[in-house]
Design goal:
The chain is an alpha+beta fold. It is 20% helix and 36% strand. The strands form three sheets. A six-stranded antiparallel sheet has the order 7-4-1-2-11-12.
Length: 183
């Protein structure tokens, strides 16, 4: 019984070691009043923002790659050059900000992203249809000088995104705090 418990604990540590977070910002330099986050998406799963982001804060496990795409659904055919790849070698990446839009230099914004664990091939899995892409599961925003981080319920991303665009802070306040949702 002790061996099974140890194996389960070890598997849990291995899964945690392969955890990643992808947070998109509408502003450059991972700043601004609003961000949308994918917390612990599976390796190879497309994270579709459904709108343009100027920068992404990457948290990646060691020996993995992050890929950013200019169109939804992580479509390979339009993947841009190496500036859209983030590589974690022997050390994990914690909260590295990458700008994808620099006025006058590069004016391309990102609409989707994914991370891929080493050994899954360049780019990981093939692009999937929109129904299989993930939506962000967390929104962070600032209102009246206070920062909030709220969980986005399954199937409610489009509504939450509309509330953010409309500045409907009353509806956003009704969402569960992200920390409470993780427990």
């Amino acid at each position: 019984m002790v061996a099974i418990t140890s194996l389960v604990s070890l598997l849990g540590l291995a899964t945690a070691a392969l955890s990643a977070d992808i947070t998109g910002y509408i502003a450059p330099s991972c700043t601004g009043d609003v961000s949308f986050k994918f917390t612990s998406p599976p390796s190879g799963a497309c994270c579709d923002f459904k709108f343009e982001v100027d920068s992404i804060r990457w948290t990646l496990p060691r020996r993995s790659n992050g890929f950013a795409y200019a169109i939804p659904q992580c479509a390979r055919a339009t993947r841009l050059g190496p500036e859209f790849t983030v590589t974690a070698g022997h050390k994990e990446i914690k909260r590295r900000c990458v700008n994808y839009s620099s006025p006058g230099v590069v004016d391309v914004r990102v609409r989707s992203a994914k991370w891929v664990a080493e050994g899954k091939g360049k780019g990981g899995v093939e692009p999937r249809g929109e129904k299989e892409c993930l939506n962000p599961n967390e929104v962070a925003y600032e209102h009246e000088g206070v920062e909030y981080s709220k969980a986005i319920p399954d199937g409610k991303y489009d509504a939450v995104h509309a509330w953010v665009q409309a500045g409907d802070y009353e509806k956003l306040a009704e969402l569960e705090d992200a920390e409470d949702a993780e427990e």
